[in-house]
Amino acid sequence: EGAALATGGTRRGIVVSTLAEARFFAAGGFDDILYAFPVPRWRLAECSELARRLREFQVLLDSPQGLQMLLQNPLPAGKRWLVWLKLDCGNARGSVPKPRVSPSAAGIRPTDPEALALARDIALGSPELVTLVGVYAHCGNTYGCGDIAAVQAIARDTTAAVLEFVTA
Predict the structure, then answer these.
(1) Predicted local confidence at residue 92, as pLDDT
(2) Does residue 91 have a pLDDT over 90?
(3) Cβ distance 59 to 67 under 8 Å?
(4) 3-state secondary structure of 82
(5) Which residue has the higher pLDDT, 53 or 138?
(6) Comparing C-alpha atoms, which of 74, 82, 73 is closest to residue 54?
(7) Alanine racemase N-terminal domain: from which residue to which, for each copy (predicted)?
């Protein structure tokens, strides 16, 4: 009910963090869902099934390996992978830096020289198989903030990083 209210009854344009949520909303008539986690290989079959079934099932990518995985597993004719490039604008999960290509990575840093190359590869590589929808950043680093000013500062920094990346 809440999601239907939030979408003005359209049942479109929702973001989920698990595939269980995606299946739940799909069963409830939602047909435009973004899975807000870089697609791990072990979840590819589930993502593919949702992408085939829904009008729009969108996923995140944050590595060249993820892009190759989608290119090597195309959807049926008339469908393509709808991809958002996941940027890590300072909210890497956990206190210890993780390798950028690990399954639990929180995105690619917008200042990483490979980030622009990856965006170009997604956008220009094989648009009939994989289409770049946009860039995505999640301010998970706000979870530990103690006040509104700290949240606003992170939001400003993230917005500036995303806009600088998109401009480049």
Answers:
(1) 54
(2) no
(3) no
(4) strand
(5) 53
(6) 82
(7) 10-140
CB 58 within 8 A of CB 84: yes
Amino acid at 117: A
> So where are the chain's domains?
1-167
Rounded to whole angstroms, the Cα distance separating 132 from 117 reads: 13
φ/ψ of residue 139, rounded to 5: -85, 60
Residue-wise burial string across 104-141, b where 16 or more C-beta atoms lie within 10 A, e elsewhere: ebbbbbbeeeebeebbebbeeeeeeebebbebbbbbeb
CATH of 1-167, one of 2.60.40.10, 3.40.630.30, 3.30.70.260, 3.20.20.10: 3.20.20.10
**Could you give the CA distance from residue 54 to residue 32 in angstroms, rounded to a whole number?**
7
pTM here is: 0.86
C-alpha distances out from residue 91 to 109, 139, 151, Å: 10, 6, 12
Query: Does the pLDDT of residue 36 top 60, yes or no?
Result: yes
d(CA 40, CA 43): 5
